Amino acid sequence: MKAFYQISYGGPESDKYGDLPDPVIGNDKLLIGVKAVSINPVDYKIKSGDLKLITGSKFPKVLGSDFAGIIKEVPPGITGFKPNDRIYGAVSVITRNPGTLCELITVNPKSVRHIPEGMSFDEAASLPIAALTALNGLRRCRVTAGSHLLINGATGGVGHFAIQIAKARGAIVSATCSEANMDLAKKLGADEIIDYNRDDLGKVEDKFDAIFDTYGKMKYKQIFYLLKKNGFYASTLFMPWSGLYAIFVKLFYSRYLTSANMRARPEDY
Fold it and tell me: What's the CATH number where 85 sits?
């Protein structure tokens, strides 16, 4: 099969396009013909070698997590799917599985769903990691109807899903973005827009029940200033303070700090 892959960690000089062996289907996985793939921050972090302690030193590596495609083969015993079904999902490349930037992949049936009628392969492939990360972040922030939520980086991959999901839950959404993306944030449903290039978050008068930091770079003083007592802050980046420091902040400042990465329940897809 044709594939786009790496022969080492690094920049463009480490990329190759060529032939790799077709995957072996096995008894518990679907064989998928890939039609579309989207790229996420985890891909360039793996590519650069930032995560090599986890991803290892075995090459070639095929990157790409999100995908949409058509089922080629279904092993006996797997139900709910058949050849030529249009499906989408994600694979975990961070755990050293082969990625999706290739013609054929094998996937656990639990990790895929049928593409809804009328949705394109490109649209479906853009959903899994960003949308599920947004959904998990809002869960970690305990966002419900009437919650006043600040989304930092609201027009990025995760943020633009978070606005829509939060509004669907009945939340009041304040969104930070650049001036160029203000119209998009409004169109997605944000109630208030904050230009992060001009507006100082440390001078915002509102206080929030929850902050979802999809950019992951808010400063401690901003968080404590903006977050109400017993409020929740979630970041898409892994934070060392999500352990002992989070306990300290909870006990002495009555605020909750956590990381919020992709998590999925069966009903989420």
Answer: 3.90.180.10
